[in-house]
Every structure is written in structure tokens, then in C-alpha cells.
Specification:
Layout: E1 4-10, H1 16-25, E2 29-34, H2 39-43, E3 49-55, E4 81-84, H3 86-94, E5 98-114, E6 127-140, E7 145-150, E8 158-161, E9 166-169, H4 181-192, H5 204-216, E10 221-224, H6 229-242, E11 246-252, H7 260-270, E12 275-279, H8 281-288, H9 294-316, E13 320-322, H10 327-333, E14 359-361, H11 369-378, H12 383-386, H13 406-426, E15 434-448, E16 451-464, E17 472-473, H14 478-491, E18 495-500
Parallel strand pairs: 1-2, 1-3, 3-4, 4-9, 10-11, 10-13, 11-12, 13-14, 16-18
Antiparallel strand pairs: 5-6, 5-7, 7-8, 8-9, 15-16, 16-17
Helix pairs in contact: 5-6, 6-11, 8-9, 13-14
Bound molecules: xanthosine-5'-monophosphate.
Residues 342-343, 345-347, 390, 392-394, 434, 468, 505, 509-511 line the site of xanthosine-5'-monophosphate.
């Protein structure tokens, strides 16, 4: 049976995924479609029974030429619609309301006065704390609509149609700063759309296993496991479906952290996955010799990885490929008009485009990271893997500025272990997106004992982030930084200086290369 679900139409807002995730957290399935999706596309979704539509925020202005809008047929579908921010303005505008640039922008935490606590605002107090971020404002509504809330700047901060289930909120209920945003979304799902909370990420296990069996039949499939949570969960799922006809391949590039390859191999073997570990350390090092340009490093590693993996796939006679692609990967590379290429991301999940497989199966394609983690826990994968911080495909190679050598890799591994140990000991790691070290190409003077020392400078980076697209540097306690720096300079004698990276993303990126 299909679960009840809500479609989010994407107007390019930064919180689009957050809306879908919040809906899912309430037990209702949700997917994102481009803003110009047609009623047929929405009706034809096989993954859910569509019970409502949410229009996301976005950077455009509804009054400008060629502003993104919805297919008018969507209004005829009889489905409840909730417009958020740009969606709120659009819903008012296409019904003949007045929307224009306000005198002042409203940005950040705002207190709205709730005039009528009904529908989406049922149960709300006279004043609610919400998160606003808009320049345009709705100033007038056609007579068939009524205002539900206002602020000094926004006379119509929330509205509804008097008869039809159409709602608009100028603020962002999906953002944690909106104190009772979860209740507002729950009102829309359960009071307005009458959804049942009948979706759980775990339910996808049976479906995924069935699908893998159907596609692969009696043949063999391969999967590349990097050690990250996505590929590991996909491998365990596929192994449940295919047994020994799944061949999981872990390429040991030599660019992994301390003990990482061994840990992944042991965990997968314990879970009964048929795993081949390919020791390709020399091959990678050889190709990286003398290479200093970051993009060149990334290209070489990506290319070499495909070669090694292709050789294995051919050797074991696999006709199908399993990949750990997850939902955001698919949306970002699909319909979203994407910004400039900043780095060539090497994603083990997205690699072998030139390889000839009969089909590619992506059992996690509809799930978010936190849902994949939940599923991983259910499948018995150790927490050390399921909760692991993101790690770039090209590994430590992009954390060593300049040429990558065995000596530098060995040194950086020791430094990284110290950073990880100390952050985890402090107990702050759960709140961090990543915490790691970078080996710079700078040498500097120090003094150890009574003698002059000349050695490396390493940088420590710790960031907070929701999705890796933007990030803030972590305001780490001095005592933690002090412990890290003392241990590194004591235990890794080649290092004489430790610096802390205090840049946000943007303007920086998270990794140094
Ligand atoms: P940047 O450095 O671009 O990284 O701010 C954003 C997030 O992506 C990770 N990252 C990668 N992940 N292949 C990956 O699968 C890559 O080539 C790659 N490069 C960076 C990075 O660790 C951060 O979490």
C-alpha cells in the first residue's frame, strides 16, 4: 500500500529539503518536484498517495518578468496547498492579491500576532516566534481570502481561502527558529490534508530487497563500498537480497584515515557481506607523485578509482551495479539549476559512467541521510560507521596541500586521530558536521626542549552544518583547542605549529582543496 504523502514544489529556496524532511519526521512521506510540475506528474507518483502540496520559498519576486509559477491545473486538483514565503506570495498573487516590495525587509526571528488560530494555525498562542526572510510582502487579498496573522511589516503574514483548503505563511515553519513550526506543519498534514502518519524509513527495506531481486535475477551485482554510511547500508541491503551474488568491492586507496579500511572490512564481513578488498595503495601513490594541483589530484583519483573498480567488476563477471545514491544527490544532480562548479566531487556512488552494466540499482534513492542512518542501525551496522562524519571521496589527498607522499599520509593520519579522539572525548562531536586536520605545505620554526625545531604547520578544522552546502566554523572551547595542540606537538614531533581555521563556508569550502 502506498503511504500518504505531500509534494513539495521547489522554487529554489534553500530550505526545500528541510521542508520534505520535516514532513517525513512527522511520519508522512514527501518528495520534491520542480515548481512547474504538471497535475499528471503529481497524480502519477508511484511512491505515495498525494494528499497535499507545499510551495517552497525561493529567491525570485512574483512580480518580476518570467517569475517561476505553478501550472494552473494544480489549483484545480482539489488538493490542499500550503504556500511558504515565496509560495505564500505566489498563492496570493495568482488569485489577484497585491504583492510588492515592502519598505523594510523582515529577516530573522520575528514575533507574529495570530489573529485567528484556525487550520494550519490551530492551537497557536496570540504571539508566536517565527523565522522570517523576505523582501516582498502581501499587502492585499481578494475577498475570498482572510488574514490569519500579521506583524508590523507584514499586514498579511498568514492567510487562508474562506472555502478551499489553501493556506499561506510568510514565515518558515520548517526552520528550527520557528518555535512551533512542527505543530504548524502537523496541522497542515493532519488537520487540513487529513494524512495518516503511515510512513517510516525502515519500511523501505522490504521494498528495496524485492526490487534488487527483481532487477538482478540470477545474475551478479557489484557495489563499491567506500566506508561511508550510504555505500555500506546499500551493500548490506543488497547482500540480503542477493547473498553471495553480490560482490562488494572496497578499494583501499591508501588515502583513508587510520584503521578505516580494516574497520569497514571487518564490519561488512561480520554482517555476511561478500567483500573483496583491493589493495591499490601503490597504484594511487604512484599516480599522485609530483601532483600538486587540487583539481588534478581529484581527477587522477577519480579516474584511477574507476579503473580499479572496473577491473574487479569484469573479473567477477558482474552484470549489474548497485549504488548508494541518496535522495539529495539525486535532486541536486537532477532538475535543480545548479550553481558554478566549485570542486569536482568524487563520489564513489556516482562514478562508473563509462562502464557497461545492464542496469544500475539505487536502493536508497528516496532517503535522506538521517533516514539511511536509521535504516543502517536497524540492519545491525555498528554505530562507528553509521554515525561517521562525512569524508571526501579523494580522502586525505585533499587534506594534504601540495604533493601527496606516504610520509605525509602517515603523519596526517596520526594528527587526525588526535583531533578525533579529543573532540569525541569532549563529547561535542554529535553536534559537529566534521572535525579534522589538514597538513599544510608550510614549514615553520619552533622550539622543542631547548632547541630550535623546524617542522610542519597543521590546521585544525571543525564545522557545524546541516547539509554541507553552507557551514560555520565551530567556536570551540579554548581548553579543547589547547589539548589538541599540545597533544599534536608532543606526539607528532614533525609538527611545530597548529592553527585553527576560523572561516565559514562561504566564503571558504569545508575541505581545504
Ligand atoms: P566542500 O569542501 O566542497 O565539501 O565544502 C562539502 C562536503 O562534501 C565533502 N566532500 C566530498 N564528498 N566526494 C565526496 O563524496 C568529494 O570529492 C568531496 N569533496 C568534499 C566534504 O567533506 C564536505 O562534507
Amino acid at each position: 500500500m502506498k503511504p500518504d504523502g505531500v509534494v513539495v514544489l521547489d522554487f529554489g529556496g534553500q530550505y526545500c529539503h528541510l521542508i520534505a524532511r520535516r514532513v517525513r519526521e512527522l511520519g508522512v512521506y514527501s518528495e520534491i518536484l520542480p515548481c512547474d510540475a504538471t497535475p499528471e506528474e503529481i497524480r502519477g507518483l508511484e511512491t505515495m498517495r498525494v494528499k497535499g502540496i507545499i510551495l517552497s520559498g525561493g529567491p525570485a519576486s512574483v512580480t518580476e518578468e518570467n517569475a517561476p509559477t505553478i501550472d494552473k491545473g494544480i489549483l484545480e486538483m482539489g488538493l490542499p496547498i500550503l504556500g511558504l514565503c515565496y509560495g505564500h506570495q505566489l498563492l496570493a498573487y495568482i488569485h489577484g492579491g497585491e504583492v510588492r516590495r515592502g519598505e523594510r525587509r523582515e529577516y530573522g526571528i520575528t514575533y507574529v500576532e495570530i489573529d485567528k488560530p484556525v487550520g494550519v494555525l490551530k492551537g497557536m498562542r496570540p504571539i508566536e516566534r517565527v523565522w522570517m526572510s523576505h523582501g516582498d510582502t502581501v499587502f492585499k487579498l481578494p475577498p475570498e481570502f482572510e488574514t490569519l496573522a500579521h506583524t508590523d511589516i507584514s499586514p498579511i503574514a498568514a492567510f487562508r481561502h474562506r472555502v478551499k483548503p489553501l493556506y499561506g505563511l510568510q514565515w518558515h515553519p520548517e526552520v528550527a527558529h520557528t518555535e512551533r513550526g512542527r505543530e504548524m506543519l502537523a496541522n497542515f498534514l493532519f488537520e487540513v490534508c487529513r494524512c495518516e502518519a503511515n510512513w517510516r524509513p525502515e519500511d523501505t527495506v522490504e521494498k528495496a530487497i524485492r526490487e534488487i531481486r527483481e532487477v538482478v535475477g540470477d545474475s551478479r551485482a557489484v557495489i563499491a563500498v567506500s566506508g561511508g554510511v550510504d555505500s555500506t547500508v546499500a551493500a548490506v541491503l543488497a547482500s540480503k537480497a542477493l547473498g553471495d551474488r553480490l560482490i562488494a568491492v572496497h578499494v583501499d586507496t591508501g588515502l583513508m584515515r587510520e584503521g578505516e579500511s580494516r574497520e569497514v572490512a571487518e564490519a561488512l564481513k561480520r554482517l555476511g557481506v561478500n567483500l573483496i578488498v583491493v589493495d591499490a595503495r601503490e597504484r594511487f601513490l604512484k599516480r599522485l607523485r609530483g601532483v600538486v594541483d587540487p583539481e588534478e589530484k581529484r581527477r587522477i583519483i577519480g579516474e584511477e578509482f574507476i579503473r580499479v573498480f572496473e577491473d574487479e567488476a569484469r573479473r567477477v563477471g558482474a552484470e549489474y551495479l548497485i549504488q548508494g545514491t541518496i535522495y539529495p544527490d539525486r535532486i541536486e544532480s537532477g532538475f535543480r539549476r545548479y550553481s558554478d562548479k566549485i570542486k569536482t566531487h568524487h563520489n564513489v556512488g556516482g562514478l562508473p559512467s563509462k562502464m557497461e552494466f545492464k542496469a544500475v540499482v539505487e536502493p536508497l534513492r528516496d532517503l535522506y541521510k538521517d533516514e539511511v542512518r536509521r535504516l543502517g542501525e536497524r540492519l545491525g551496522i555498528p554505530a562507528s560507521i553509521v554515525r561517521r562524519q562525512p569524508f571526501p571521496g579523494p580522502g586525505l589527498a585533499v587534506r594534504i596541500i601540495g604533493e601527496v607522499t606516504e610520509e605525509k599520509l602517515e603523519l596526517l593520519r596520526r594528527v587526525e586521530s588526535i583531533v578525533e579522539e579529543e573532540v569525541e572525548r569532549e563529547g561535542v562531536h554529535e553536534g559537529l558536521w566534521q572535525y579534522f586536520a589538514v597538513l599544510t605545505d608550510t614549514k615553520s620554526t619552533g622550539v622543542k626542549g631547548d632547541e630550535r625545531a623546524y617542522g610542519w604547520m597543521v590546521a585544525v578544522r571543525m564545522v557545524e552544518s546541516v547539509d554541507g552546502m553552507t557551514a560555520s566554523f565551530y567556536k570551540a572551547p579554548w581548553t579543547l583547542l589547547e589539548r589538541i595542540s599540545t597533544r599534536i606537538t608532543n606526539e607528532v614531533p614533525e609538527v611545530v605549529r597548529v592553527v585553527y581555521d576560523i572561516t565559514h563556508k562561504p566564503p571558504s569550502t569545508i575541505e581545504w582543496e
